[in-house]
Specification:
two-stranded antiparallel sheet; single chain; 8-stranded parallel sheet; Arginase, Chain A; alpha/beta
Length: 291
């Protein structure tokens, strides 16, 4: 692979040297309300240059990390199956090279092929899911592949006892009832996260964050905003706890829709979370003298 010409700030490592591979999946063809997430990775890449590489939260700097920016995948908008297959192929290639794929969506459906690739390499895969929505419908208006069904399709792959959901505050009654039997679902916040991390100890974990878990007062740039969400500081603390306590083998940030927040505040929020997650994932590899 060759480096993308315009990279995320601080993500200029060569592929052969990198431990983390960022890539964008600009796809929102099944978005059920307001589209625009296809523009997220492009906007984040461009806006990243308004952010510093140094994190005062962790006292770490992306300039000391080894992150490769693989650019945006060229995805077919008329055929969801083909688009998902291309995402899966890219993630599988990264995993085969013993690197960690970090996906920037796009709508939440793009998570499915990334998890498929991870589960193929790690059959005992667990999943931690932050979101405002359950995403557990078996179909949405007859479609089994949708951003509203993505975690149900993930369950088809990993089964009971492996999916841990947090921040959930929206969904059909039937989804909440189904979750009681098949997933570990925590409503509204991150209560119980420590127990979930302990339950996944020693197991490979895929970590997916739908950014609408944030309250729309601090993150309005998303297609299906839901009042009553968490703050940025709460999300950051929870994300760092997951990364610090789990064996992360793949992760993503999805559902930023830049056109829905022309102030740029939502994009800046997503970027700061991305920086902190990358640094936390790289922390074991950054030499002490660099810290």
């Amino acid at each position: 692979m060759e480096k993308n010409i315009e990279t995320f700030l601080g993500c200029g490592a060569e592929y052969k040297d990198a431990r983390i591979v960022l890539y964008g999946a600009p796809f929102d063809s099944t978005t059920s309300y307001r589209p625009g997430t296809r523009f997220a990775s492009r906007a984040m890449r461009a806006e990243s240059y308004g952010l510093e590489t140094y994190s005062p939260y962790q006292d770490l700097d992306l300039e000391d990390a080894q992150v490769f920016d693989g650019g945006d995948l060229e995805l077919c908008f008329g055929d969801a199956g083909r688009a998902l297959a291309d995402i899966r192929a890219f993630a599988a290639e990264v995993l085969a090279d013993c690197k960690l794929p970090f996906l920037i969506g796009g709508e939440h459906l793009v998570t499915l092929p990334a998890i498929e690739a991870a589960a193929e390499k790690y059959p005992d895969l667990g999943v931690i899911h932050f979101d405002a929505h359950t995403d557990l419908r078996d179909d949405y208006l007859g479609a089994r592949l949708s951003h509203a069904t993505v975690i149900r399709r993930v369950w088809d792959i990993v089964g009971d006892g492996r999916i841990f959901q947090f921040g959930i505050r929206s969904g059909e009654r039937a989804e909440f009832l189904w979750a009681k039997a098949h997933t570990s679902l925590r409503k509204f916040d991150f209560a119980g996260l420590e127990q979930a991390i302990a339950a996944l100890k020693g197991r490979p974990v895929y970590f997916t964050i739908d950014l609408d878990v944030l309250d729309p007062s601090c993150f309005p740039g998303t297609g299906t905003p839901e009042a009553g969400g968490v703050t940025f500081r709460e999300l950051l603390a929870a994300a760092l706890a997951v990364i610090g306590g789990c064996q992360i083998v793949g992760c993503d940030l999805v559902e930023l829709s830049p056109p829905l927040d022309t102030s740029g505040a939502s994009t800046a929020t997503a970027l700061k979370l991305l920086r902190e997650m990358l640094l936390a994932l790289e922390k074991p590899f950054i030499a002490p003298e660099m810290v």
